[in-house]
């Protein structure tokens, strides 16, 4: 394995990195011994090759799951093609095939494009029926692109499509429930999604996303070809993505839409009954304040049962699909209506069950589009992951931020790996079968391969201890003045990470007023990609925003020499899911605040701070304007989660350092 890694690195013009070598050797050992592994690999380690080389040499199919499209594109379009080219002729690399696999709705549907989209009454709308204006033009442009993809052997993936909105993409795609099925669809042989599955079936490495992995391994819906090993990159995101994949929503508008779609397709009153159930749901939701619902009122419970029963009756009443091989093409309107009704039934049944393993809450929506909606999410995903993924597969979980508070226990526990099961590289592989071991023990090893960066020499962590503790009213004048002074010293070059859109906009407005010679951008003023392009293009530019800037933004060089964090990013106290998880941890005898809120904050702080140093030549300051980072008891836990930067609380010293970096 080491020889192949050395060859690949040399072929790609790289240099040996001790952390990458240590990671590759640990990953290869974990795969061969079928033992779970957590690897923290700092930015610049080259962790993608650290797991891709062992994956290609493993012998059996390996699935690589990512959280972001950016990393997925990097793997499929850059790292894997270069790796395949580099390993040609190497022993053990005879099969270096790879493929990317996504959920069905990520691929264009040829049947929908060529036959039309059902309207609210289920009748097909062709191209001539599209509304005039930008929507119709975008749909037509997408349809032309789809046909070009089909004729040229393209993949039909949404990520490669011309710019479009979610609403437009729905005109050329279907969900897995709406799909007619390859055996019944007249375009099944050309289907982009089916062709992607066939490519994955023939490949040694399959690149997918966290959500599809969760659906396949945890929900038990076969989406990925058989595999025994999975590498989860960006593993710090896995719990959130698995939770998201297992979260369902129900609203009166969705019930009404399904009722109207099915009305022409059934002879009885089943569609009308579903519509009546939707009205009952709307009435029940309007009596409940937005927020977590611990004990559903009787009216809500009754409404959920009405929706459940009416949806089930409607599914039974809708036309049966023609038999495979009969030559008959299913009615796409009926297929879509049945898919929607089945989804309503499953969601309403889950909500009506009132499981203590789920969290239920109401959110406010635009009343014009349906008023309030009801949501349900798993209280925790550790046990489903433990039994659905870790029990059957070998998992390698890697990220730049897995050690929170200085160790791996918090992240491991959230993933379904217990601290008492942790082993070392020297622990015998069969140790879990010793007397006294749990029958379902999942031994796991952890490794921090460090970073090629000298954080103490390259970066400063500045905590503004002299500022007041953040309150609910947002940034104070003292906070705004501090931000302007820091930005002025840096002469721009600032990425501002804020806890709310309101705070980001207030800071941007103040900096524009005080420092008009600098360009200050705020999230929401343009597409994020455009804002990032402007930020990178001019060092005298500032970019202020919220959560989507905390992770994934890669801006090396003098573009970013100051990262401002306005406050410790604890979850909102009224966050239904986080508050429920914190309460559950307390009830189990743990410390809910530390296990949930502090861990959440530590992860975001580590990710946000990681925006600063992206290469060995980068230098700069992370400025936290929240004194709790050094004054609160939990501050040491949070600081231990950050890169090992040199720390200070002296504002004059920091401004001097920033001016020196800016060349002033």
UniProtKB/TrEMBL annotation:
Cofactor dependence: [4Fe-4S] cluster
SMART domains: DEXDc, HELICc2
BP GO annotations: nucleobase-containing compound metabolic process
EC number: 5.6.2.3
Entry keyword annotation includes Oxidoreductase: no
Catalytic activity: ATP + H2O = ADP + phosphate + H(+)
Enzyme class: isomerase
GO MF annotations, alphabetized: 5'-3' DNA helicase activity; ATP binding; hydrolase activity, acting on acid anhydrides, in phosphorus-containing anhydrides; nucleic acid binding
Domain Helicase ATP-binding: 6-289
Family annotation (PROSITE patterns): HELICASE_ATP_BIND_2
Keyword vocabulary terms for this entry: ATP-binding, Helicase, Hydrolase, Nucleotide-binding
Pfam families the UniProt entry points to: DEAD, Helicase_C_2
InterPro entries reported in the protein's UniProt record: ATP-dep_Helicase_C (IPR006555), DEAD/DEAH_box_helicase_dom (IPR011545), DinG/Rad3-like (IPR045028), Helic_SF1/SF2_ATP-bd_DinG/Rad3 (IPR014013), Helicase_ATP-bd (IPR014001), P-loop_NTPase (IPR027417)
Key word Nucleotide-binding present: yes
Family: Belongs to the helicase family. DinG subfamily.
Name recorded for this polypeptide: ATP-dependent helicase DinG
Organism: Nocardioides aurantiacus
């Amino acid at each position: 394995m080491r020889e192949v890694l050395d060859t690949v690195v040399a072929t790609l013009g790289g240099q040996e990195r001790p952390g990458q070598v240590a990671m590759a050797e640990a990953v290869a050992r974990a795969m061969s011994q079928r033992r779970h592994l957590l690897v923290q690999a700092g930015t610049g380690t080259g962790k993608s090759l650290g797991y891709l080389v062992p994956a290609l040499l493993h012998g059996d199919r390996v699935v690589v799951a990512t959280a972001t499209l950016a990393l997925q594109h990097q793997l499929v379009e850059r790292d894997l093609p270069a790796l395949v080219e580099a390993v040609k002729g190497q022993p053990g690399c005879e099969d270096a095939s790879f493929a990317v696999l996504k959920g069905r709705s990520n691929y264009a549907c040829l049947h929908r494009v060529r036959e039309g989209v059902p309207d609210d009454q289920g009748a097909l709308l062709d191209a001539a029926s599209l509304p005039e204006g930008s929507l119709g033009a975008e749909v037509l442009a997408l349809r032309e692109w789809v046909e070009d993809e089909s004729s040229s052997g393209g993949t039909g993936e949404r990520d490669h499509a011309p710019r479009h909105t979610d609403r437009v993409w729905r005109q050329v795609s279907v969900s897995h429930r709406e799909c007619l099925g390859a055996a019944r669809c007249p375009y099944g042989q050309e289907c982009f999604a089916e062709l992607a599955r066939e490519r994955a079936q023939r490949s040694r490495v399959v690149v997918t996303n966290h959500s599809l992995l969760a659906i396949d391994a945890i929900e038990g819906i076969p989406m990925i070809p058989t595999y025994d090993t999975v590498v989860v990159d960006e593993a710090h995101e896995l719990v959130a993505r698995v939770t998201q994949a297992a979260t369902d929503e129900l609203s009166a508008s969705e019930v009404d839409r399904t009722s109207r779609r099915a009305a022409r397709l059934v002879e009885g009153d089943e569609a009308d009954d579903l519509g009546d159930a939707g009205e009952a749901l709307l009435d029940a939701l309007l009596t409940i304040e937005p927020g977590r619902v611990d004990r559903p009122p009787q009216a809500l419970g009754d409404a959920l049962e009405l929706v459940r029963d009416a949806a089930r009756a409607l599914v039974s009443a809708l036309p049966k699909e023609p038999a495979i091989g009969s030559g008959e093409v299913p009615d796409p309107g009926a297929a879509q209506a049945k898919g929607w009704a089945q989804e309503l039934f499953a969601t309403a049944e889950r909500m009506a069950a009132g499981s203590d393993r789920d969290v239920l809450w109401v959110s406010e929506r635009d009343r014009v589009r349906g008023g309030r909606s009801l949501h349900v999410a798993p209280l925790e995903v550790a046990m489903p992951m433990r039994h659905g993924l870790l029990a059957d597969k070998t998992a390698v979980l890697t990220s730049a931020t897995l050690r929170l508070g200085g160790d791996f226990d918090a992240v491991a526990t959230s993933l379904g790996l217990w601290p008492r099961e942790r082993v070392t590289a020297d622990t015998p592989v069969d140790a879990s079968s010793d007397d006294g071991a749990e029958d379902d023990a999942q031994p796991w090893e952890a490794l921090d391969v460090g970073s090629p960066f000298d954080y103490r020499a390259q970066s400063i962590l500045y905590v503004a201890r002299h500022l007041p503790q953040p309150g609910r009213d947002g940034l104070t004048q003292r906070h705004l003045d501090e931000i302007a002074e820091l930005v002025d010293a840096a002469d721009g070059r600032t990425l501002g990470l804020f806890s709310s859109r309101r705070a980001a906009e207030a800071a941007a407005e103040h900096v524009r007023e005080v420092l008009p010679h600098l360009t200050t951008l705020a999230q929401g003023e343009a597409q994020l990609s455009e804002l990032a392009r402007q930020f990178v293009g001019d060092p005298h530019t500032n970019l202020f925003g919220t959560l989507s800037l905390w992770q994934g933004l890669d801006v090396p060089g003098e573009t970013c020499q100051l990262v401002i964090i306005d406050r410790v990013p604890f979850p909102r106290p009224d966050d239904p899911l986080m508050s429920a998880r914190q309460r559950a941890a307390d009830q189990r005898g743990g410390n809910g605040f530390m296990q949930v809120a502090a861990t959440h904050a530590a992860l975001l702080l580590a990710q946000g701070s990681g925006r600063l140093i992206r290469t060995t030549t980068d230098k700069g300051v992370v400025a936290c304007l929240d004194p709790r980072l050094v004054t609160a008891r939990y501050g040491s836990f949070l600081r231990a989660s950050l890169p090992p930067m040199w720390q200070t609380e002296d504002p004059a010293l920091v401004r001097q350092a920033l001016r020196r970096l800016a060349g002033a």
